[in-house]
# Entry
Amino acid sequence: MISVSELTKLYGPIVAVDRVSFEVARGEVVGFLGPNGAGKTTTIRVLTGYHPASSGTATLAGFDVAKDSLSVRKNLGYLPQEVPIYPDLRVVEYLRYRAALKGVPARERKLAVERAMDKAAIADVARKLVGNVSHGYRQRVGLADALVANPPILILDEPTSGMDPNQRLRIKQVVKDLAAEHTVLFSSHILAEVQEVSSRVLVIHRGVLRADGRPDKLVAQTGRSRLQVAVAGAPAALAAALASVRGITPGPVLPAPDGTCQTTCAVDAHTDPRPEVGRRLLQHGLPVCELRLDLPTLESWFHALTAGDIATVPSTLPTPEASR
# Structure
């Protein structure tokens, strides 16, 4: 549904996007990540027809963004980070107006607007002036705008910006549900949300695509798991129990005033040492207070990748053509 090949965007001598290539298949929810200034917004603006590419190609729903912009826009719903709205219109009036602009037939507009408001959870403010609703609600009005013509492709730029925790929870579920009818590319700085709703993530950094794959597999490649161990017993006994366990590197054992002690162990990639550690603690007669494996998060992986601590991570998914 979205195909980008060798996409490059120059602003004078500055290379904002450098030969970026990726594809998004029908029904995928793909998170598009990058630090500020990485080229993420520039790429989105090229895909949505706001800026022309300097070189390379981009197609949406089979239409070339540069050569058939009108057909691309008919198949695309776009939510920008800052939603441009008319504050003097009521929410339902604004959405009816936008539906008309997008070519929704007059006999279908009422149902289209109601469906979009229901998906974006804004039916309770339908009669309010857009200028009088909160910033979070404005974002949701923008989401309803993107949905009102029921396009097959959605590009969402920071869809939960300015929302409270309850609103974020609702919109996360909306994004998950959208995969049944839409292909979704969305950017967000809240990486926990991206990890929760995305089937795949793309990471751009300094204009270059640095990673492409499933969040769990990308995160697993960092090998930064930690094992937290706490027992009732002497520090020397805990150190002895952990000394020969394969796949872990125990840290200092810290005693506590209540007679317990604890340590944090570095864990090798693709390893779960808990069963073996549990057996060793039992053999040494150490009652277990805590035995917890802390897995790496998307946030820690993203920091390591963009801070230069780990190398470029290859894609862990086949191309859309190969999966057909």
